[in-house]
Amino acid sequence: MVCVEIVLAGYGEVVVVHVSDLHVECENYSRELEERLIGYLGELRPDIIVVTGDLTDNGYVHEFRAAIRLISRFKARRVLAVPGNHDSRNMGYIVFERVFGTRFPFFCYKGVCIQGVDSSEPDVDDGHIGRLAYDLVAERLRGRGRIRMVALHHHLIPVPGTGRERNIPVDAGDFLRVLVELGVGVVLSGHKHVPWIWSLNGMLILHAGTATTYRLKAGIPPSINTLYVRGCEVEVRRLNLQTMREEVVYQGTPNPTTLDKGYDLANINYDFKLDSTGHS
Known about the structure:
alpha/beta, six-stranded mixed β-sheet, 12 strands
């Protein structure tokens, strides 16, 4: 089991709020939703706020300035943000890194370890993670904490009600295997503006809706997720930012398990290679 009871001594509840797709200054942005979000966060005072991308609409400097003004109002011990496809437009990925310091933030608190990953590519909507990021995630998360989480913008598996599938990271399958083998219990993402939960091989995959816009599919309300980590258990509550009503959408203990070990490539012999002199 990933969450080892030994590490729980002295660890209390950890509250993580998952916010996504702010699209600050877009045509459908809502100041009313913004104030409701700020009010909720100010009352709750969570330990960690994770923003899974699309803080801006087109990656422009003035949009990042507005996003920073908004995020500076978030009340939490730490705010982690990763870029989305909209943030990486118009060289916005450079601005993002300059403003936030990194596109791969990492934070551990009371045994809850969260690794952020940039899944965006400049000026395209498709997602990509890359093998170098696999190594980074493994280095930071392997053997760490009671609950391991990874946050990225793009969805790793399809979300119902979002039309013909597109934009899933091209290497989603490889990355999912990395996450399961590392014992990552929770994956946080956004992008589709539709909240949804999947459980894949015991790993909780949690999608957030848009928090502060009316870019809504079929009127699905703007929302955020709040995770309460108690011991090994995770409770997820979804907040409807139109009605300000919360509902529990998940309660359980993530337990990622590799069901298929795949091929043991170490035992496959390649009887050809280039030696140090350049000869075969």
